Amino acid sequence: ALRAFPHQWIAMGSEYLVNVSVHAVAGLKIPGEGADDGLPSPYVTVSCFGTSRTTHTIAGVSTAAFNHFFSFTKQTDQDDFEGSDVSIEVFHARTFGRYDKIGGINFSLAKVYGERGHMVPKDWHVIVLPDKPDKGCGYVELTIGGYAPSDVVPRSVGASAQVDDEDGINSLKSRVVKPPSRDAAKSLFQLSVKIYTAQNLRNVPGRLYSETCDPFVQVDFNGTSQRTQTHSGNNPTWNEEVLVPFSMPAWDNSVNVLVKSSGGLLGLGSDTLIGEVVLDIDELAEAPVPPTWYYFYMPGGGAKSDDSAFAGRVMLAATMERTEKPLLTVNPTNLSSAPPSRKLAIWVDLYMVYFDTVEQPDELYVSVELPVIMPDPLESPQPTPQGHGFVWDDDNGRMEIEGLTAPDACQSGNFIVSVHAKFPKKGFFGSSTLERYMYTKIAAEEVDNWQSTPKWRDMRLVSGPGGSGVGSAGFILMSFNIGDVESKPRQRPEREQIIWRKYCFRAHIYQAVNLPAKDEEGSSDPLVAISFASAILRTAIISVNTNPNWFETLEADVELPENEALRPDIIITFLDSDDGDFEPLCQMRYATTDKSALPKKWRRAARWFPLHPVPGGVPVQSKLLAAFELDPDATAGPTQAVPLETVTCRVDFFIVGCRLRASSGIDAENLRLEVSWGRKKKSRAEPRTSRYSEPRQVKNMRCNWLQQVSLKCKLSKESQFQEWLELKLLADAGDEFTTAALGAVHLTPYLPWLSKERREELEKKFKVRRASPEQEEREKEAGEKHRESVSGDVDAARGSVLWKRYKNAVQQVEDHTLKEIGWDVDSIEETNGRILGLLEYASVPDEKDGENLEDIKNVEHIKEELLTLQEKNETFFDDAMLNFAQFFTWPTEVPAEDGMDRHPDHDAELEETLDESELPYQKTMLFLGSEWGEPRDLGCLKFCCRVVDLERQERGDPELEKEDEEWAASIKKLEDDFRMAKELTVRAYVITADGLLPASGSGDCSSYVFSRADGGGEKEDALFCLRDNLTQRHHTLHPAFHKCHAFGSVRFPDNCMLEFSVVEVIPASLTRAAREEVIGSTVIDLEDRWFHPKYRLMVKEDIVPIESRSLRHTGSVFSKGHLRLWVDILDLQQSQERKIAVLPSTEPLPFELRVAIWKATDIESGVITTPDVKVSGRHTLDNGTDLYEETDTHFGCDDQMATMNWRLIFKVMIPCKDPRLMIQIWNDNVLSSDNSLSEVTLDLGKDFLLARRDNRSVDFAKSALHMSHPNFPGKIMGILEVEALLLPADEAAMRPAGAGREPPNEDPFLDPSDPHLVAHRSRLANLAIIKALGDALGYAKLMAQIAFVLKIAAFVGSALGGIAIAIATVAKL
């Protein structure tokens, strides 16, 4: 049959994002027997969407900080996304590329997405081996987030932005990387899934030896996959129990039970999926699943989306319980009790059916089946044609059956209601037999009652091979009831007496806005398809238009129930017409059951209806202006035009120019612009009126016209109707101009007879948002937290900068003051110390005042500016600081200020605070369509526009003459400004990038910034391109660049777009050469900045904010990070007067980390009674060099205490990839390798960054660190007293300290004469046998004898050494 509008629905996926941060591991042990004494060398593998990524390996640790970030994206649909998992596996790296799995954990993305903010916050998680679930293998610390296209991904900023100045002086105890204290064994559970039997499983086609199947059941959960035995036939019985261990809380909450047929096609291929059951662990924790039937459905005609055919059912049960020793196995079981059953009665009443086709079938009947339970389907008689549908009169549509044995409704599956039809045969088309044409499924649970009210149900098309089963194929009005035979009414109620009445259905279709653009070389050719009961209507096709006007009234005769509650919905589908094929754009459904929904005459204003995406389509922001009527006293007539009250106007359109993107693909030497309005009534493809610009030459993808065109138009007087100008950018193709891009200008906000408030309201209402309203609201809430301190007002921004400088200067003075009066700032509460210190300032001698404060600048002028702002209530002071500023003047000088001090942070793009209405022109997007319906942004057109009421002009309105003069003056000024926009200097200060999402998905990212103002493209203009690959930042997703990208001789429009790209440098691997890939880009319209008065004032005051710009990548809906920068655009005089701001260096600098090891106490050594103890420290440089230092040995530790008094010195570089220090206590073996007694890992990331940022030292007070060992989780294996100092290399040279106990032994002094230390520095003297002899002979006498023996041994050793050297010399001769 030929359908009226053969919808060719496109099943499209959207981009989904998963971010995983692997922070640390802890409590790890080498897997396997006999490995208890060793420490693993762990690395972590993260797998998602079929991709795996791995951290680096850290050798010989049980606790380690990784701080790795991984990102995964996939183009998929929501079901596939929520059905996916994130797998975390921890491995031990052995020699020669071998490895052992330590443990793992799985996260269901459905579970992750359901968390607040779609994120599992940073926390520790137990890892286990599925085959040994009773043994906790350790912990992994993770953060996981999963995001859909409409979600706001949380901003991720670098650790440098998170450094707390007050956190600099602290104990090392707070830096310990330690696992949680909870016991893994207490959270172990046993999952039991019992698989009993299956019935009526579908055949697997193409099998060589049979047409049935060889089914088995596979249970996937918690990283394991267990399966039953394989049986033969469609009705197997397994009676097997699958046991799977897991721990709670379970992040993998989906238990996937898959029924498969072994062997697949021809019995030789892969297994074939028959059906799937998904159990939820959280629901299972609340209540077990008793033996239950689960039903499968499959395509009836070959299309993936068609699920109209029954594929079988399976009975299973599931439970979970806590246990100390869960198992991973499959055992036999028996069905203890079958699901309860009942005697079922089914009542069906059919009333009407109609088809969404031009041709109606010759014959049809309806079948109702409940697979397995009903032996045969119920079949209706032939209905009677009525209008454009079919009705069942009297009892013809009544069907029933009783006495069926069935389980509860929730276990009875779905009824499948099918319409079988035979359409007229025309040539090779149509059919000669009744075929299953459309269907609907009704859950038995839904109709398990005896209320027999009829209801309209959508029917879906049963697609044939290669077809599609999505979209409405028709509608059926029916009532459906099931229930126990015993509970049914004694007498079946009479059929609903439906009074059919003839109506004239009338649809007023006025216009639509912001439709999707489906044509890749244009926009869309839309029409409106309306389906209501038997009425099928459609509008004319409007070619190449996303804001089409129809102003048509369509009518159709329909027969409907007089009862409004029984009326169907109006279904409206927008279609894109292409050479006879139709693709859906968007749709809506209008409910008609309310009495006021379909009046006889629509007397109120027409209504703007929001439109919705089609299945598998992209989100839309489209709207339809329409009204609907249902007239019982009229008959349908032909399509009529809707009259419109208009005003004759002239539209003056001043074309500034077009600014094309480098990726637009437009390659033309000359461009011209067509500006048109309206469409001709007889030919909707032709504009009613149009004007053309002069051809202009293109340079750097920019083109300026500075030309005005005017069009005479009849515009709607009512603001309910929206007017648009259509733009067509034409490219010179040699012999003709061809369409390169399209655009539109919303004219209604320019209508002079509308109030300003109404114009602003309309502009906002019909403006295309870059995100959904919900997403914009979430972004706004997230951004406001960071923007409270930043005001759009220039004076406020200026005040905040002055306040910062003033506070810094005053604080330096206060510190000097407090030291002069003998107060230790760190020993008292800081605020009280500063306030009291100011009162004591008079006691400081004048000569010392000048001596100590000579390097600090007088801040009196800053104070005056702040007080001026305070009087205007434009900045904030606390009372104490304000009083101090008024009464103290410091006769001092300040050092040169940081180049960033004058520029406040603004956590958004600056465009958000620069009101576009203050620009002397407006902008609109130039675009072409795409296969998915989203317009491809090719650039923008800048213009000025006004609407002149010609009737008002004819009347000689003096106000209009004034408006003409103002218009002419503004155009003249704009032309002059463009002529003056040359010889400019652009200085872009690139500060940092945050939260990068590189294409590699790895957190070990090296990147640089590439900037260009040459128009883009493959060819780079060296004068306006800076590929700053010498300023690479390594091993971070939060690089700090601190570089100025400067361009001179800038002119507009040639260099009006400044693009920044953060580029990832990917090193060569075994399979691929080294390469570079753009992570994301952002474009700043320099022209908009230059012409904006507020920005020009910011530049003049040198207080342009540091903005945070989102990095975007073609083909992705997610931001790829943010780039922080500020941009100054300077004229010739400003560039000569203003020096380039000095930014602090971010290159790695040498620092010295001094760690004083005082002593170890409470040493637990296991079976070793008197260990010989030493302490080591290890730090790894970015180049892989291990910095390893160790103390001397404390021999004979028989009192669980070892005194070290030893200084470990590490020459570190900051910033670095791995800011951790691992400290271990060892047993110093003589004849074998040393064995670790305990360890601790310190994460010094914040301290390293704080020291590097301020180039200052960081002190760590003496702390007692609790040591641990993976073989004794939760047990303290020793306490180590440690003190540390981190200081810059130049300061370290001025404050030298010796390694160990070498001079200079200070800061702190490490006592080499400590009695306990001295007594345990001789291995021989601390041997157990020597100590025993000492106890017997007297310790002093024994020591003297030992000393004498040692002298003799030394003498003999020297002699033997001399003899050996002589022998070696003779041998050489």
Distance between the termini: 108 Å
Q: Quickly count the helices.
A: 21
Approximate helicity band: 10-25%
Content-based structural category: alpha+beta
How is the main sheet built?
10 strands, antiparallel
In total, the number of strands is 63
Low-confidence residue ranges: 1-12, 159-169, 464-470, 785-807, 817-860, 873-897, 1362-1373
Radius of gyration: 40 Å
Written account of the structure:
This protein has 1373 residues and is of the alpha+beta class. Strands 19, 20, 21, 22, 23, 24, 25, 26, 27 and 28 form a ten-stranded antiparallel β-sheet that branches. A five-stranded mixed β-sheet has the order 9-62-63-56-59. A five-stranded antiparallel β-sheet has the order 16-17-10-13-18. The chain is flat and about 120 Å long. The N and C termini lie far apart (108 Å).
Outline the fold blueprint.
Layout: E1 14-26, E2 42-48, E3 51-54, E4 64-76, H1 78-82, E5 85-93, E6 99-108, H2 109-113, E7 119-127, E8 138-147, H3 159-162, E9 170-171, E10 188-199, E11 215-221, E12 224-227, E13 237-247, E14 254-261, E15 272-280, H4 281-286, E16 289-298, E17 309-322, E18 329-332, E19 341-355, E20 363-369, E21 378-379, E22 384-386, E23 389-391, E24 398-407, E25 414-422, E26 435-443, E27 455-461, E28 472-484, E29 500-513, E30 526-532, E31 535-538, E32 549-561, E33 570-578, E34 581-590, E35 607-610, E36 623-631, E37 640-641, E38 646-660, E39 670-679, E40 687-692, E41 696-697, E42 702-716, E43 724-732, E44 737-746, H5 756-766, H6 773-787, H7 794-820, H8 830-839, H9 846-852, H10 860-871, H11 879-887, E45 905-906, E46 922-928, E47 936-949, H12 950-954, H13 958-980, E48 984-994, E49 1007-1012, E50 1025-1027, E51 1040-1050, E52 1057-1066, E53 1075-1085, H14 1086-1090, H15 1093-1101, E54 1106-1110, E55 1122-1130, H16 1132-1137, E56 1149-1161, E57 1173-1180, E58 1186-1190, E59 1202-1214, E60 1220-1227, E61 1235-1243, H17 1245-1254, E62 1258-1267, E63 1278-1288, ...
Parallel strand pairs: 9-62, 45-54
Antiparallel strand pairs: 1-4, 1-8, 2-3, 2-5, 5-6, 7-8, 10-13, 10-17, 11-12, 11-14, 13-18, 14-15, 16-17, 19-23, 19-24, 19-28, 20-21, 20-25, 22-23, 25-26, 26-27, 27-28, 29-32, 29-36, 30-31, 30-33, 32-37, 33-34, 35-36, 38-42, 38-47, 39-40, 39-41, 39-43, 43-44, 46-47, 48-51, 48-55, 49-50, 49-52, ...
